């Protein structure tokens, strides 16, 4: 049986076939679909955790209890989970434990492009890097077996072009595993200093054994070619290199930490030139250079952005390995005038839009966070001042407010934090606790749209539903805020612009912490209702452009209005796209001419 | 249209978030697999989808390595939107075919006057490639009774240029569209095929 699966679907399938029974994750592009797909299999438990640290620890528990576990996250998620990861590397496992972690070279949907292969080296755990969907599925099983045999967590490193690329995968049957009952072993699992001192040397010993495995495993294979050039590569870069220079000899590293030093020496000894082709950091290159083997890499290939076959080819031409492009292809030059920017935009009807419009009215400093609302930075709203990491908005705002206060800065602007519900529950809660506890003068706007929007609408502890579709308790964000010591908690309807601005003004006037929660759901959760669609009366529209300041994709320019005098500004009347408008009415509230109204009254 | 014996056929499907680019490329990939070929495809999800540019690289043949099509190597460029066809035209191989839905999706950034829509897009396409296939798939879809048939019509056109069996195409289209719209989609597919 064969199926076309994405890398993420293949990881989920691999986990199912390998007998994984417990999986936990927090959504994050490009890793989200791993758990979404795993959750559909019979007889497994899969959950959204509030954050990656929690997900990781749930996995540790399952492994301790003798059940194979999978935890999944995006690259920056491992920063959050680094605390349990680094010490779990000491204790080791009972049943197999797999961390599937997806990097995002090129930052399609991320705030940085850190190379998480270093994390495997940092924690001294085995690292597996698939180069397509079939390998992704196969490596899940191997990584879990290695985890049990070597008493270590295993790490599977994906990238966007593995996670979201699809290929043909042969499906197998789930295995029957013998149970591994949890035997109490305090010197292994209780990491007090005395016992951790026992574990650390064991970690180093384990690393030696993993090095031997790296020499033996068929995942690290040499493909002899008929040229004097040898390519050392891993992950999707292998596929690009195969495309561009199939005649070269390849050392393809499927297990890329620890590296197989003897195999690398053997490979090097038969070749005139060695080139390392790897995305992002010189992870393999530096280690091979440290072995004293001359090798080229980053002087020819970029250290930023994701690779493409073209970038790999250009690098090989710079390295004089290839003389000219393999296929002469006069790239058609596209006229510059034709390039149309199409930045991502908040959806029509998105409840975040009016909040940012309102925050602009208050001329505040707005520390923001990770989510769809980060798009509030783009024109025409240009409403936020920062985005660093999950939860940072609130604690950064607290820092800004304290700095202004204590250093007597000449700064009259009110300080806001703008954070979504899922991000707040991920890691904004402790920050808000800090604000309450330390009496910060911060206005925290929680953009509660009842879902994890940017990753496609996943449930979280505030939605009342689990990943596997069960009804459950719902965190009450207002009550939670009150419990954290915030005495002023207000709810606003973001579709009521005037009312929202009013509440924000009242809270700014108050010295001390406030929480303002918005109460409209994400448009992805709301069924399209054609009776709510609005229209623009073309007789009344003067083309003033007020409504365009919202940056709503449903509002588009229509008929030209000639300039009043020669050389004056040509304006456009606007029209509302009836296929996009969701009837939020915010543009109607801004229109001074009263030109906007419901299309079907 | 294909890359010759043993070579990989490359189809770049492009458009704007929400147009159905991903579903179309899923169908194409499935047709290729069921025709006994190796297939890979690659696209980007996440932030790029919020009204942004969507591209899906589909490659099939005896053995496919890279999931991305090298520049200048696409045998077919299937564009769901006019300006997007111009953006990606550089991926087309010499002699490759561009199938372009001339529908225009104007982003808000144009409404606010920061950028402008390339008004001469059709002319640019005509200047740069031989015999681009320009069609108003939205109009055809509406004539057939449902604007959501755009991607099936475009697949119908593409199927005439790709060396994959028609019966496999029809089977996969049937399976992948909502049951209630099966007949309508097959009609749209045939309509697309009849255009070439």
List the helices and strands and how they pair.
The complex is a heterodimer of chains A (601) and B (196).
Chain A: E1 2-6, H1 7-17, E2 22-25, H2 33-38, E3 45-48, H3 52-64, E4 69-74, H4 75-80, H5 82-91, E5 97-103, H6 117-123, E6 127-128, H7 133-150, E7 154-159, H8 160-163, E8 165-170, H9 186-189, H10 193-216, E9 220-223, E10 229-233, H11 235-244, E11 249-253, E12 255-257, H12 261-269, E13 273-277, H13 283-290, H14 309-318, H15 352-361, E14 365-367, H16 392-406, E15 415-420, H17 421-437, E16 443-447, H18 477-483, E17 488-492, H19 497-509, E18 514-518, E19 534-536, E20 555-561, E21 571-576, H20 586-590, E22 596-598
Parallel strand pairs in A: 2-3, 2-4, 4-5, 5-7, 6-7, 10-11, 10-13, 14-15, 15-16, 16-18, 17-18
Antiparallel strand pairs in A: 1-8, 6-12, 9-11, 19-22, 20-21
Helix pairs in contact in A: 1-7, 3-5, 11-14, 15-19, 16-17
Chain B: E1 9-16, H1 21-34, E2 38-43, E3 53-61, E4 74-79, H2 82-88, E5 92-101, H3 108-111, H4 121-128, E6 133-135, H5 137-144, H6 150-161, H7 166-176, H8 182-194
Task: Walk me through this protein's architecture.
The complex is a heterodimer of chains A (601) and B (196). Chain A is α/β, with parallel strands linked by helices and 601 residues long. Chain A folds into four domains: 213 residues, 3-Layer(aba) Sandwich (Rossmann fold), CATH 3.40.50; 99 residues, Rossmann fold; 174 residues, 3-Layer(aba) Sandwich (Rossmann fold), CATH 3.40.50.970; 69 residues, 2-Layer Sandwich (Alpha-Beta Plaits). Chain A contains 20 helices and 22 strands. Chain A has a seven-stranded mixed sheet with strand order 3-2-4-5-7-6-12, sandwiched between helices. A five-stranded parallel sheet of chain A has the order 14-15-16-18-17, sandwiched between helices. The longest helix of chain A is centred in the middle third of the chain and has 24 residues. The radius of gyration of chain A is 27 Å and the shape is globular. The mean pLDDT of chain A is 96. With 196 residues, chain B is α/β, with parallel strands linked by helices. Chain B has a single domain, classed as 3-Layer(aba) Sandwich (Pyruvate-ferredoxin Oxidoreductase, domain 3), CATH 3.40.920. In chain B, strands 2-3-1-4-5-6 form a six-stranded mixed sheet, with helices on both faces. In chain B, α7 packs antiparallel against α8. The mean pLDDT of chain B is 92. The interface between A and B is large, with 63 and 58 residues.
């Amino acid at each position: 049986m064969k199926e076309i699966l994405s890398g993420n679907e293949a990881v989920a399938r691999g986990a199912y076939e390998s007998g994984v029974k417990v999986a936990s994750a927090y959504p994050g592009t490009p890793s989200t679909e791993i758990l979404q797909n795993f959750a559909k299999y019979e007889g497994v438990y899969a959950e959204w955790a509030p954050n990656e640290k929690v997900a990781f620890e749930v996995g540790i528990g399952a492994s301790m209890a003798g059940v194979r576990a999978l935890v999944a996250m995006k690259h920056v998620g491992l920063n959050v989970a680094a605390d349990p990861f680094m010490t779990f590397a000491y204790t080791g496992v009972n049943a197999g434990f797999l961390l599937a972690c997806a990097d995002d070279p090129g930052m399609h949907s991320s705030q940085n492009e850190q190379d998480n292969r270093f994390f495997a080296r940092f924690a001294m755990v085995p690292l597996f890097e698939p180069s397509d969907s079939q390998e992704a599925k196969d490596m899940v099983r191997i990584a879990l077996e290695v985890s049990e045999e070597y008493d270590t967590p295993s790490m599977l490193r994906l990238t966007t072009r593995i996670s979201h690329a699809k290929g043909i995968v042969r499906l197998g049957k789930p295995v029957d595993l013998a149970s591994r009952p949890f035997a109490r072993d305090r010197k292994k699992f209780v990491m007090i200093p005395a016992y951790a001192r026992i574990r650390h040397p064991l970690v180093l010993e384990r690393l030696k054994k993993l090095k031997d495995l790296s020499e033996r495993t068929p995942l690290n294979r040499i493909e002899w070619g008929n040229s004097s050039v040898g390519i050392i590569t891993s992950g999707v870069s292998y596929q690009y290199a195969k495309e561009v220079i199939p005649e070269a000899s390849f050392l393809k590293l499927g297990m890329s930490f620890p590296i197989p030093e003897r195999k690398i020496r053997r490979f090097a000894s038969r070749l005139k030139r060695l080139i390392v082709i790897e995305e992002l950091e010189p992870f393999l290159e530096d280690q091979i250079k440290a072995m004293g083997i001359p090798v080229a890499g980053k002087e020819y290939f970029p250290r930023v952005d994701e690779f493409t076959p073209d970038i790999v080819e250009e690098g090989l031409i710079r390295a004089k390995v290839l003389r000219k492009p393999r296929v002469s292809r006069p790239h058609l030059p596209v006229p510059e005038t034709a390039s149309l920017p199409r930045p991502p935009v908040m959806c029509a009807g998105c409840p975040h839009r009016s909040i940012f419009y309102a925050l602009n009215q208050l001329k505040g400093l707005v520390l923001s966070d990770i989510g769809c609302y980060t798009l509030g930075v783009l024109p025409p709203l240009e409403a936020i001042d920062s985005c660093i990491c999950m939860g940072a908005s609130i604690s950064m705002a607290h820092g800004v407010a304290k700095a202004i206060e204590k250093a007597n800065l000449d700064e009259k602007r009110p300080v806001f934090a703008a954070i979504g519900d899922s991000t707040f529950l991920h890691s904004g809660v402790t920050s808000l606790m800090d604000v309450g506890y330390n009496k910060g003068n911060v206005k925290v706007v929680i953009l509660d749209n009842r879902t994890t929007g940017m990753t496609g609408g996943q449930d979280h502890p505030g939605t009342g539903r689990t990943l596997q579709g069960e009804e459950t308790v719902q965190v009450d964000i207002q009550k939670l805020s009150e419990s954290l010591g915030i005495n002023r908690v207000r709810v606003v309807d973001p579709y009521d612009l005037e009312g929202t601005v009013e509440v924000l003004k009242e809270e700014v006037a108050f010295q001390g912490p406030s929480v303002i929660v918005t109460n409209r759901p994400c448009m992805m959760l709301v069924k399209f209702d054609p009776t709510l669609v609005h229209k623009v009366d073309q007789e009344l529209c003067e083309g003033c452009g007020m409504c365009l300041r919202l940056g709503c994709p449903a509002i588009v320019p229509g008929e030209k209005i000639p300039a009043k005098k020669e050389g004056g500004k040509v304006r456009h009347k606007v029209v509302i796209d009836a296929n996009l408008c969701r009837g939020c009415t915010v543009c109607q509230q801004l229109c001074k001419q009263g030109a906007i109204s419901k299309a079907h009254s | 249209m294909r890359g010759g014996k043993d070579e990989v056929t490359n189809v770049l499907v492009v458009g704007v978030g929400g147009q159905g680019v991903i579903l179309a490329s899923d169908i194409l990939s499935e047709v290729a697999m069921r025709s006994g070929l190796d297939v890979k495809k690659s696209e980007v999800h996440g932030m790029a989808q919020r009204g942004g540019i969507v591209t899906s690289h589909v490659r099939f043949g005896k053995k496919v390595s890279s999931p991305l099509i090298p520049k200048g190597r696409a045998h077919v460029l299937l564009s769901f939107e006019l300006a997007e066809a111009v953006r990606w035209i550089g991926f087309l191989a010499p002699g490759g075919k561009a199938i372009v839905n001339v529908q225009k999706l104007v982003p808000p950034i144009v409404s606010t006057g920061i950028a402008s829509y390339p008004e001469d897009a059709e002319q640019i396409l005509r200047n740069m490639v031989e015999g681009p296939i320009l069609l108003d798939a939205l109009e055809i879809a509406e004539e057939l009774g449902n604007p959501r048939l755009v991607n099936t019509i475009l697949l119908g056109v593409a199927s005439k240029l790709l060396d994959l069996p028609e019966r496999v195409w029809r089977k996969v289209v049937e399976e992948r569209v909502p049951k209630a719209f099966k007949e309508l989609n097959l009609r749209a597919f045939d309509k697309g095929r009849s255009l070439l």
